[in-house]
Amino acid sequence: MNHSLLLSCRSGFESDCAAEIQQRASQLQVAGFARTKPEQGYVLFECFGADDAARLHRELDFRQLVFTRQWQVVTAQLDVDQGDRITPIIQALTELPPCARLAQDWPDTNEGKQMSGFCKKFSRPLENALGEKLLAKSDCVLQLFWLNGTTLYIGYRLIANSSPYSMGILRLRQPSEAPSRSTLKLDEAFSILLNEQERELYVQSGQQAVDLGACPGGWTYQLVRRSMYVAAVDNGLMAENLMASGQVRHYREDGFKFEPIKHNISWLVCDMVEKPSRVTQLMLKWLTQRWCRYAIFNLKLPMKKRFAEVEQDLQQLKKGLAQTGLHFEVRAKHLYHDREEITVFACIHS
Ligand SMILES: C[S@@+](CC[C@H](N)C(=O)[O-])C[C@H]1O[C@@H](n2cnc3c(N)ncnc32)[C@H](O)[C@@H]1O
């Protein structure tokens, strides 16, 4: 069997996820085609070459895939009998490399959600049956993706090149003191777009930050929580509890015209609802003029051809940053808490 890749995404974003993997595969000269249906919450990318799915999974950087939450190489699709699901799963393992542990996912859809309880109950008996087939030293996870109680995809994913979270979803609790639900986006962005080492290095207490389009203060709250001093730029009203922290100055100004007095800003964040190309240009200005070191910002997506817009904006950003001649990073993700937008991290290293 020629293996395929299974990529899960937010329901409704299948065509963007498909367009992205199609393009990334062709950049690696891997031929294949994406199969998906609207609202099913995942995409299958069928490769023509026998080892191509494994190669894509190894060589594409998961952190560079915007619309994919989680992914796996599919080695088999199974229809199992409710009476004995375990035997066919064990029989299908011959095509798999040794795996360190078992993970079970399902599409993030209303139908898929019903698999949650089943998978919880099924884990223990399946792990018992797997026994020594699970090797602690392996760099892979045995990944099952259940469409319903009897149909599943079986395969693996590389631990170092996939999301550590079940279904690629980081669930966060809304802090009661935060003034808006958008606060979760920035919290998630710090966790997903930076790894642990980068968080330790880039996010430090006492840093200066600017929040463009800050009101009512959900993103500012995340910066204040991380002990930063924040210039909050917006014509709206900021939450009083944030102003009382003494860490926030409110500037009732246009975020596109605002310039910090001192160019010693560590973090620029921006959640203004504006054309994505315009926000991209603004971020590029702040980064290339060295007004800030790190930026996290949202790009609001158009109704159609969302991947094309994202690709164009990110290319523009990378091109502009490359012109500095300095080492830079750009990563973007359609986060769990994002809806019609993606979140981007960018920085220039001195
Ligand atoms: C989605 S809300 C931001 C929510 C905020 N991140 C939070 O977590 O509470 C967008 C904000 O951008 C502001 N905004 C839009 N255009 C702006 C501009 N040109 N300059 C400053 N603020 C702007 C709006 O007033 C609005 O408060």
TrEMBL record:
Q: Where is the active site?
A: 300 (proton acceptor)
Q: Cellular location of this protein?
A: Cytoplasm
KW Lyase (keyword) present: no
Q: Where does S-adenosyl-L-methionine bind?
A: 182, 215-218, 234, 254, 271
EC numbers on record: 2.1.1.186
- Keyword check for Transmembrane helix, yes or no: no
Using the record's annotation, list all stretches that form the Ribosomal RNA large subunit methyltransferase M THUMP-like domain: 84-156
A single MF term (Gene Ontology): methyltransferase activity
Q: Share an example GO biological-process annotation for this protein.
A: methylation
Limits of the RlmM ferredoxin-like domain: 4-71
Which part of the chain is the Ribosomal RNA methyltransferase FtsJ domain? 180-275
Q: Which organism is it from?
A: Celerinatantimonas yamalensis
Name the HAMAP family for this protein: 23SrRNA_methyltr_M (MF_01551)
State which gene encodes it: rlmM
The role this protein plays is: Catalyzes the 2'-O-methylation at nucleotide C2498 in 23S rRNA.
Quaternary context: Monomer.
Which family does the entry's similarity section mention? Belongs to the class I-like SAM-binding methyltransferase superfamily. RNA methyltransferase RlmE family. RlmM subfamily.
Q: Which reaction does it catalyse?
A: cytidine(2498) in 23S rRNA + S-adenosyl-L-methionine = 2'-O-methylcytidine(2498) in 23S rRNA + S-adenosyl-L-homocysteine + H(+)
What protein am I looking at?
Answer: Ribosomal RNA large subunit methyltransferase M
Pfam families of this UniProt entry?
A: FtsJ, RlmM_FDX, RLMM_N
Organism placement in taxonomy: Bacteria, Pseudomonadati, Pseudomonadota, Gammaproteobacteria, Celerinatantimonadaceae
User: Keywords assigned by UniProt?
Assistant: Cytoplasm, Methyltransferase, rRNA processing, S-adenosyl-L-methionine, Transferase
